[in-house]
Design a protein that fits this description.
The structure is a single chain. This protein is mainly α. It folds into 2 domains: 74 residues, Orthogonal Bundle (Multidrug-efflux Transporter Regulator, Chain: A, Domain 2); 60 residues. 65% of the residues lie in helices and 3% in strands. The protein is built from 6 helices and 2 strands; from the N terminus they run ααββαααα. A hairpin with a 5-residue loop joins strand 1 and strand 2. The longest helix has 42 residues. Keywords: DNA-binding. InterPro entries: DNA-bd_dom_put_sf, MerR-type_HTH_dom, MerR_fam. This is MerR family transcriptional regulator.
């Protein structure tokens, strides 16, 4: 006997609702069912769930995750396709990180702006002096 959906949810930090959604989307073909029809998660399923959560949380669409899982279920004949999935997704994540770093730079600039204004009691300090943003706070 394996884990119930509630136990799997608790162990992974996902909700039972999320696990049911993943199942309906075809992301859990590896999960067995009990004779009563309940999902019966086994130890090896948690590695799959971890990968699914990683891909989903890092922005991969469900359709692409499903394709990756289908290839994984096919076995070694799809190793190159699965590697390509991760290489492409890595590039997409790197692009997102660069985008977020740009946003962080703007946020840091605004933090500096308001700290400087507060220290001088006015935002006019930025117009009256040579206040220039030079570093993150």
């Amino acid at each position: 006997m394996g884990y119930t959906i509630s136990q799997a949810a608790e162990r992974t930090g996902l909700t039972a609702h999320t696990l049911r959604f993943y199942d309906k989307q075809g992301l859990l073909p590896f999960v067995d069912r009990t004779p009563a029809g309940n999902r019966d998660f086994k130890e090896s399923d948690f590695e799959w769930l971890g990968v699914i959560a990683c891909l989903k949380n890092s922005g991969m669409p469900v359709k692409q995750i499903r394709q990756y899982i289908e290839w994984g279920m096919e076995g070694d004949d799809t190793l190159k396709q699965r590697l390509a999935v991760f290489k492409n997704h890595r590039n997409a994540v790197l692009e997102k990180i660069a985008e977020l770093q740009g946003y962080m730079s703007k946020i840091d600039q605004k933090i500096w702006y308001y700290k400087t204004a507060i220290a001088h009691g006015t935002t006019a300090v930025h117009a009256e002096t040579d206040c220039v943003f030079t570093e993150a706070p």
